[in-house]
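Hello,

Our lab assistant flagged a job as stuck in the queue for most of the afternoon. It eventually completed. Since we weren't sure the result was trustworthy after the delay, we are filing this so someone can double-check. Below is the sequence as submitted and the structure that was eventually returned. Let us know if re-running is recommended.
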Amino acid sequence: MQLIDTHCHLDFEVFAVDRAQVMARAQALGVEHFIVPAVQQSSWQSLVALFHQQDCVDIALGMHPMFMSAHSEAHIEMLDHALEQQRPLAVGEIGLDFYAPESDRQGQLLLFRAQLQLAAKHQLPVILHVRKAHDEVLQCLRDIPVIAGIVHAFNGSIQQAQHYIGMNFKLGFGGMLTYSHSSKLRALAQQLTLNAIVLETDAPDMTVMQHRGQRNSPEYLPYCLKALAAVRQQSEEVIAEATSENARQVLGLN
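-- returned structure --
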């Protein structure tokens, strides 16, 4: 089986010591490709270096809504230039996170809309982080349409899912499916058409139940596959083939 981890942060410092070994172990388990999105401008250079070092890695460049203090207005122009020069696979990780009451909603909205405009300009898909803000994100996407994208760690309603799918988005599912208490998420994964789903780990965060309390890793993607197959009562082979093809289609992977 060939799997694609559509969302993992292999550039994070927590992987500095054993990044190559982690990737090798994941590949031995069938994870053939890794999509690594940026979270802030200071990481773009190291991400580009990782992309050039590893044929199995593709990257997205962008600014994450939970790192607002790290972003500046100048970074928008820098992102425009980087997208032109580096031609990453996507713009990401971008979006809105209104989970915390003290969130800078206006600042996040301005940053998100600016990055959507760049994605539209460069004809690139987007990788979205959305928490407690699906309706606001959907409105932004109506205002500034992009060619395609992935909603990472999707946890919205079936109605919101259908709106995203209608905009040529896929929905990312990962480690949370492995927990028995994730009944709402499992029901959603069961309801959706298979061609709307991609697999991810979000390593080093959101680890699987089998490694609870430990660093998450792309090598745990097979646990996510197994959980999704069980929820949908389909074979792991069918799920692996479909989700990998979905990822290739939405991100323009060869």
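-- support follow-up --
The delay was a queue issue, not a problem with the job. The result is valid. The chain is about 40% helix and 15% strand. The chain has one domain: 3-251.
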